[in-house]
Amino acid sequence: MAKSISLARSLPLDDSWDVIVVGGGPAGCTAAIAAAREGARTLLIEQTGALGGSGTSALVPAWCPFSDLDKIIYRGLAEKVFEEAKKGIAHVKKDDLDWVPIDAERLKRVYDKMVTDAGATVLFHTFLASVEMEGDSVAALIVSNKKGLSALRAKVYVDCSGDADLSAWAGAQFHKGDENGEMQPATHCFILGNVDSYAYQYGRQISWWFKDSPIHDIVKDERFPEIADRHICNNLIGPGSVGFNAGHVFDVDNTDPSSVSKALMQGRRMAEQYRAALAEYLPDTYGNCFVVATGSVIGIRESRRIVGDYVLSLADYAMRRSFEDEICRNCYFIDIHLTVKEVETKEMWEVERFERYKKGESHGIPYRSLTPKGIRNVLVAGRSISCERIVQGSVRVMPVCLAMGEAAGMAAAHAVSKHKGDVHAVDIAHLRARLREEGAYLPDFQPSVKSDSTKLEAVAVEV
C-alpha cells in the first residue's frame, strides 16, 4: 500500500494580516487583544467553537491563584479577564484572588467581547494544517476549515497552540515530556448538576487533602475501575452545579489524534463513574446529581516545549530570579502530576516535591523564553515556552498564560511596526514600558541575591 501521496494544487491566499495568533486559549486571547490594541491587523484562529481553552472548552472549574499571597501579580489583561469573569458568580467575593470558581459560559462571552472589542478577528473551527517556510521565517500557514484548505500570511505569528504546533512544524527545536518522552497525565473535567449546595458547602468533603474524604475508599472500590487515583478537586460554580477536575487519564499525547480520541471516551466513562460513586458515598450531597457536561476537549498539562533563546531553569525558579527582559512574574508552585507507575506503587513523586513560595515571592519570565531559537518571525506563549520540564509544571496554568500572551501579542505588533517582523530584535525597554502602561506587574530589575540556593527545599508529601 502507498505510504504517502503527493499533492500539487493552488490554494487561496489571505495576506492581509500583520499578526496571526494560533490557538484561542488564555494566552492566545490576550495575545490577540494586545496585538490589535497596538494597531496590528490581527487574526486569531481557533480549532474549537469557543475561546478560552482550559477554562471554557475543557471545563477546568477554577482559576489557579492570581496572588502571591500578598497581592495580585497577574495584572494587565490577565486581571481584566479575571475580574470580568468573577462578576457573574454571585458566591464569589470581590476580593477573592485564589482558586476562584469559573463559570465557563460567562468566560466564553468575556473572551468574545474583549478580543473583538480590541479589533481582532476570530476564525472558529479552523485548524492549522501546515507551515510554509522561506529561510528562517514562516511564509504562510495552511489552514483547514469548512472552506477546505487555504493559506494565511502575516508578518509575525504567535504560537499559542498549547503544543507548539506552529513552531515545531516551522522547524524549531523542542522537547516533549521527560527524557523518555513520558508526559503528565491528562484530566477530563466535568460538571455535576442537581447537587445539594448546602450539603456541599457544610457537609463531608470529597477533595483528596481531607483525611476523611471518601475518595480514599472509592479508589479501592472495584465497582469503579475507571477511578484509579485520589486526584479530585472541585468547585461550586453555580446553584446546584459543581465542577470537577478529577482523576487522571494516562499516556495521552495531545499531538496524536488517536490517543486523544481514546482519552475523551475514557474520560466520559470516568465522569459517570464519579457520579455513581459520589451518589453512593455522599448521598446527602450527590444522591440526585447527574452529569451535566464533560469538557469538549480534554485537559492537557504537557506536550512540547520549544527551545528558545533562553531556557527558564529550576535554578531560576528556586532563586526567585529577575531578568532584565522580564515580561511577567509567576508565583505558582511546581505542580507535576503522578505517573501511572507512581499511582500503582503508591510511591512518592519520582521527581522531588518542592516547598512552595512564601508570601510575596515570585520569579520572572524572560522575553527570550518566548522566542524560538532560529525562527525569525514567531513567538510562543502558554505552556510551550522555553523552560525545563520541571518548571513547566509551574508556568503551564491559566493566570501566567494570560500574562505571557499579552506580552507576546504586544511584542508581535512591535516587531511588525518597528523591526521588519524580527521578534528577536524587539526593543525590550519599550516593550516593558508599554506593558507597565497597560497595568502589568513588572518590578524594577533586581539581580538575584540567592546565589547560594540552586534548589528549593524538598518536602515529603504523600500522594
What does this structure look like?
- The chain has 463 residues and is α/β, with parallel strands linked by helices.
- The protein is built from 13 helices and 17 strands.
- A 5-stranded parallel β-sheet has the order 4-3-2-8-17.
- β11 (232-238) and β12 (241-246) form a beta hairpin.
- The relative contact order is 0.18.
Tell me the series of helices and strands, N- to C-terminal. EEHEHHEEEEEHEEHHEEHHEEHEHEEHHH
Helical amount among residues, as a percent range? 25-40%
Low-confidence stretches: 347-352, 450-463
- How are the strands ordered across the major sheet? 4-3-2-8-17
* Global Rg: 22 Å
Give the class from helix and strand content and strand pairing. alpha/beta
Name the average pLDDT: 93
- The tally of strands reads 17
Give the biggest sheet: 5 strands, parallel
**How many helices in DSSP terms?**
13
Judging from the principal axes of the Cα atoms, what is the shape?
globular
- DSSP strand content: 15-25%
State the end-to-end CA separation.
Answer: 49 Å
Summarize the structure.
With about 475 residues, this protein is of the alpha/beta class. The protein has helices at about 25-35, 75-85, 105-115, 165-170, 195-200, 215-220, 255-280, 285, 315-320, 340-345, 390-395, 400-420, 430-435, and strands at about 15, 20, 40-45, 120-125, 125-135, 135-145, 150, 155-160, 175, 190-195, 230-240, 240-245, 290-295, 305, 325-330, 365, 380. The relative contact order is 0.18.
